[in-house]
Amino acid sequence: MTRPDSAGRWILAGLLVSALGCSLFTARPFGRDSSSSAAGTEAARRPLPGAGGAGTPSLFPAFSSGLPADATPTLCDANAEFGADGSVLPTAAYIKGIRGAAQSLPLDCESRSAVDWAGYFGVEIDELAFFQKIPPSDNPDKGFVGSVYGQWGNIPPHSYGVHAGPVAFLLRYYGLNAYAYRGLSWDQLRAEIAAGRPVIVWVVGHIWQSTPLTMTVAGGEAVLVARLEHTVILTGYSATTASVLDGATRYSVAIPAFLDSWGTLGNMGIVGRILPARPDCAGRAVELVP
């Protein structure tokens, strides 16, 4: 994909993009690193493992979660640690103290969500520095597809975005406990919120509906994609609603609408811990490793 120069170039204020979703952004000087915490600053200095001179690898190296080789990183809906029917979970839970901002580039919603999520855990990361470290790829499960200045609503190989695996890998590089899964359940999300851990989730638009597509990318891999792919941070829930942080905007939607939109890309998200393996049952959550 085409990347902008890093010499403090301002994004053109007149850039013609959609005014919604991943295309809702605020112009900032590209390449500026405003990292302030020790962890974020140190991470910004050192190259990624396996990186070239520019500090950006063409493909992330394999990552080991530390689980035994015969353990499958899954958590079952039934007999989960918070109860089979979720009754142990509170009826409502909300996370305070997490702040968001409008994204700086037309299609870097994943980077914006990532740095807002990291900030909640005390690690300040510059959004543009984070984006520059995501490798380009034809496969969104491996890296960023297309140009970050593209039009929102495309599917690969056109400008699209990136899925959870590479984002979680990069967050771990910055020192955070971040793990990407597909096939998460609503109770698993509720358990994370009740424990005080927000969750980055992949949805469609601003919790809209869409049709999932399975397509074959370079290399012959089948990948699940959707038009208007977008990320928000789940920050709370009640008996009837899910509350999200969408860039700088907070809102709540009915749970069925949230589940429908979140389910389009296979119930994908990033959580702040390795979910416990459950070899005693057929789990649905599968860790995504780029």
Structural features, described:
It is a single chain. This protein has 290 residues and is α+β, with helices and mostly antiparallel strands. The chain is 19% helix and 16% strand. The chain contains 6 helices and 10 strands. Strands 1, 2, 3, 6, 7, 8, 9 and 10 form an 8-stranded antiparallel beta sheet that branches. The protein has a two-stranded antiparallel sheet with strand order 4-5. A hairpin with a 3-residue loop joins strand 6 and strand 7 (241-246). Helix 2 packs across helix 4 (164-173). Residues 1-21, 26-87 and 279-283 have low confidence and may be disordered.
Global shape: globular
Mean pLDDT: 78
Give the total of beta strands.
10
Number of helices: 6
- Write the CATH fold name: Cathepsin B, Chain A
Structural domain count: 1
Just give the CATH class: Alpha Beta
What's the story with the biggest beta sheet? 8 strands, antiparallel
Q: Over the alpha carbons, how many angstroms does the gyration radius reach?
A: 18 Å
Portion in beta strands: 15-25%
Structural class: alpha+beta
CATH superfamily: Cysteine proteinases
Unreliable segments (pLDDT under 50, ≥5 consecutive)? 1-21, 26-87, 279-283
| SSE pattern, N- to C-terminal | HEHHHEHEEEEEEHEE
User: Judging by the overall fold, what is the CATH architecture?
Assistant: Alpha-Beta Complex
The percent of residues in helical segments reads: 10-25%
Question: Main attributes?
Answer:
disordered N terminus, alpha+beta, two-stranded antiparallel ribbon, Cathepsin B, Chain A, 8-stranded antiparallel beta sheet, 19% helix, 6 helices, 290 residues
